[in-house]
């Protein structure tokens, strides 16, 4: 397990570098498409650096704000705080901040940059539909994300994916605003500008590439967190029962967005389990392994 955790840290570094490189490539594409040349690349590089720095410090606040999470009052949610404290003592973790999300769908996520600066958020639906043992299993899963250092790259992805989508959308709008100046200049010179064409294609596919990278972030980490949670609680049936209830529940998590989908314990967005013609496409962008596979793995423990 420690080898997998170390591997996850290396993958996290590689993924962050990958996101930064995509932003730089987008800047290069903007330069050729809009006629700004190397200035576009320089601006995108600066933006990537600012985003990476800002995301490290504030992406957890962004994730909580986007999900409309509010601090869980210790008096009103005493059971929740007691479970978190007990699991933290068992796992040797500092207690994270605890948040509540007013949403009928049972779900939860962890966010932050390290165990000392972390937060756990659960929906009101999770508290209503799970018993104490099942809730403990879910909380152990989220605390495992914190202990395994999954939360940093997962939280960074929230702002990085959103930034890539924003940059590409802005670039395409700028291209139309300047009247396709680069393309017309190329035509006057006796042919289209191939670099501008490549740049335009990159701007179209960059958000798709970013979404695929986002999907790869959490799939393996979810399985590891399931196993780590059972190690923490010493009671796999608790998490198994919780996952079975999540599987049976069809409520969509309205507090989730495409940017934060990979943070939650269960795939929160609609389209999950699509077996139609586009089922393969949906599964390619799924941020979580199927619940059936996760449950089957836990039953083998």
Notes on the structure:
The chain is α+β, with helices and mostly antiparallel strands. The chain has one domain (2-299). The protein is 67% helix and 7% strand. It has eleven helices and four strands, in the order ααβαβββαααααααα. It has helices at 2-34, 38-66, 78-91, 124-129, 132-147, 151-177, 181-188, 194-233, 236-248, 279-284, 291-299, and strands at residues 69-71, 97-101, 108-114, 117-123. It has a four-stranded mixed β-sheet, with helices on both faces. Strand 3 (108-114) and strand 4 form a beta hairpin. Helix 6 (151-177) packs antiparallel against helix 8 (194-233) and helix 9 (236-248) runs antiparallel to helix 11 (291-299). It is elongated, with a radius of gyration of 21 Å. The two termini are 14 Å apart. 42% of the residues are buried. Residues 186-192 and 271-276 have low confidence and may be disordered.
């Amino acid at each position: 397990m420690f080898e997998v955790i170390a591997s996850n840290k290396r993958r996290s570094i590689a993924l962050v570098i990958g996101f930064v490189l995509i932003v730089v490539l987008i800047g290069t594409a903007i330069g050729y498409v809009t006629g700004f040349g190397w200035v576009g690349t320089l601006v995108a590089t600066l933006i990537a650096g600012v985003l990476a720095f800002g995301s490290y410090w504030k992406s957890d606040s962004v994730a909580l704000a986007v999900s409309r999470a509010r601090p869980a009052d210790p008096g009103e949610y005493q059971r929740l705080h007691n479970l978190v404290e007990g699991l933290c003592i068992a796992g040797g973790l500092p207690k994270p901040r605890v948040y509540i999300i007013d949403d009928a769908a049972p779900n939860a996520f962890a966010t932050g940059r390290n165990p000392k600066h972390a937060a756990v958020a659960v929906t009101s639906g999770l508290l209503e539909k799970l018993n104490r043992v099942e809730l403990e299993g879910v909380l152990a899963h989220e605390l495992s994300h914190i202990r395994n250092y999954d939360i940093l790259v997962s939280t960074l992805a929230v702002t990085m994916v959103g930034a890539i989508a924003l940059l590409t959308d802005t670039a395409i709008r700028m291209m139309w605003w300047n009247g396709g100046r680069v393309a017309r200049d190329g035509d006057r010179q006796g042919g289209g500008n191939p670099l501008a064409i490549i740049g335009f294609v990159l701007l179209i596919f960059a958000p798709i590439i970013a979404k695929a990278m986002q999907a790869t972030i959490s799939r393996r980490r979810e399985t590891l967190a399931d196993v780590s949670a059972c190690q923490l609680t010493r009671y796999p049936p608790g998490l198994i029962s919780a996952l079975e209830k999540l599987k049976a529940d069809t409520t969509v998590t309205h507090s989730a967005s495409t940017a934060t989908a990979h943070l939650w314990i269960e795939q929160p967005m609609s389209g999950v389990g699509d077996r139609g013609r586009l089922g393969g496409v949906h599964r390619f962008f799924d941020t979580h392994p199927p619940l059936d596979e996760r449950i089957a793995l836990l039953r083998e423990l």
